[in-house]
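Reading a protein record of the kind used here takes only a little practice. Each token is a code from a learned vocabulary of local backbone shapes. With that in mind, consider the following protein and its fold in token form:
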Amino acid sequence: MPRATFVQRLLAIIIDGLILLIPFVILSVVVNKIVGPQFGRLIGQLIFAAIWIAYYFLTEVKTGATIGKNVMKLKVADISGSPATKDQLVLRCGFKMLTLPLSILAALVATFSLSLSGLIG
């Protein structure tokens, strides 16, 4: 299996990002209307994290590729070039999830910094 180019990977990420952006924007607007912008931003970040985890976990583990990767005709492979096993895909998704606490912390800092500065809420 030939290795994907940087451009192929980037396009796959952009496609996946656009797919994830649609439900995130809709849910963020609804949440902001319900709880207001201060906590809406934080709740929106948590919702995005849940959508992101579900999307990557369900698409990669079930089919071996996200929708973006499928469009670009890419598959996740192991170091030898063979298709990744389910266990390898679960582990890969698990490592992606390790970045979420940092993202949530950044959202908390941004939300409360803007609140303290008087820019929101």
Remarks:
- The chain has a mean pLDDT of 84.
- The two ends are 53 Å apart (CA to CA).
- Helices lie at 6-35, 37-63, 67-71, 86-97, 100-117.
